[in-house]
Amino acid sequence: MWVYLLIGIVVLIAISVAVVFYIRNTKLEDINNKFNKLEDVKALPFQDELFKVKDLNLHGEAKKLYTGWQKEWQASLKDSLDTSEGRLSEAKKDLEKFKFSASDEKVKQGEASIARVESKYDQLTSEIDELVQMNEKSAIARAEAEKLHREAKRDVLASAYQFGDASGPLEELIDSFEPEIREYDVMINDGNYVSAGRHIEDVRSDLRTLKENMDDIPVLIREVQKDLPAQFQEIRFGCRDLKAEGYDLDHIKVEGKLSTLKGKLNLVEPLISRLDLDEARKILDDINTQVDDILELIEVEVKAKIKVDQDQPLITDELFHARNSNYTLRTEMQYMEDQFFINDADIHSVQKFEHEIESLVDVYDEIVTETAKTNARFSEVENRISHIKDQILQINDEQEKIQEHLISLRDDAEEAKENTIYIHDKKEKVYRKLVTSNLPEVPERFIIIKNELDINLRKIEDYFSKRPLNVQYIKDKVNQTVMDLNEFEQEAYELLRDAELTEIMIQYGNRYRRDDHAFDAQIRESERMFKESRYKRALEIIKGALEKVEPGAARKIENDYDEK
């Protein structure tokens, strides 16, 4: 047994040794790869990248950058790669001694050094490319700036009349850009590419702004010399025409405002001549805003006049309608006072409306007269007219409701009379059906209900003879009596149904009485209940008994009865 155990231990040790050697060989291979990568980093073509700058003038900023990049790369390459090579060599020795942890730590340090060199390479080559691209972009910017300068000079010379007094200052400003462009060339010759790039970008931006301003100057001059003066004149003449048509525009103070705006406008042309265009635009924006305000106030008056003209025929018709309706209501109320009860609130409302209508007519006539005689501020007239319109429409609506109520008094009284006749006829018909049925006797409850209906009908008849007649009271009384009649009719129908069904089922069940004593006893009990006028209970007993001897028979009899 111990031999097998010994063999197992030997095999386990052999496997462990093999695994350890495998791990060491794997890590050695990894370190050798790191050495290969180190050689690749040493061979990075930084000098080829740096050669891109050789075509530039290596003076000033360019020389300083070139020297700095070269020194920075050499220093980084020497320090980082020496450190990396040393750490990787130490890691290799540790592996030979099977010091895996120490070896791994030194490999990480070596990798970090290699990564720093690669990062530095990327940084420096990026800065080199940026300088080269900056030079290319600034050359394009210089060409565009020269083109803009040439076009600006040509435009001001060819179309000096469009710029007015601003043509002289424009020429001076354009000429001032020539030395700025030449300054760029000097910077390039001196190798100051970074400063030259920033400088020419500023020059190009200023020339673009200049070109935009040159496009604006004729527009601004036209606005100052033609557009706004023409608009001032148009407003002035338009207001005179409106005043002739009856408009009161004194509150807008058109003449005073236009004079003030004209004074402001006189300040703009000198600003344009001095090329102070931002201030000129600011003043023109303010003038245009104030002109819009004047036009808006005038438009308010014009729209108000249109609204007044539209509302006047409507208000006239509504006032006449209100007067006629009020007279009709007062006359009708006087006629109906003796016949029907009319609420004091309705009477007082009609009287109040009479005074309000006359007051509105007076105010409306005054407005129409004043508007016809003198110029009117139609925005105020519109407010007053709208107030009258709202009031008279409300009055007409209220008077129409009162008129409908008066009409409904007659209709409701007539309907109540018809319902009274219907109640009497229906009550007699139902009671007659109870009396003429095969019932042993009419239950006392139905006699009581009929007497109550008779008493209510006599009261209603008596109330119809009273004057003035309170229609709402009698209408409520009749409606309640109709509800009592419906209940009387419903109960009578249920009673007759229960009685007739009981008789039919007893007759049907007679066939089982001789052979079934229990069933016979149930029928006898049902007959006893029937004689005592307890028809509902009698029906329940016979239904239950019949269902026991012939299931479904009672339901069929009931369905056949209800379908008749």
Automatic annotation (TrEMBL):
It is found in: Cell membrane. InterPro entries: EzrA. The keyword Cell division applies. Signal peptide: none annotated. This is Septation ring formation regulator. It comes from Salinicoccus kekensis. Residues 107-151 form a coiled coil. It is a single-pass membrane protein.
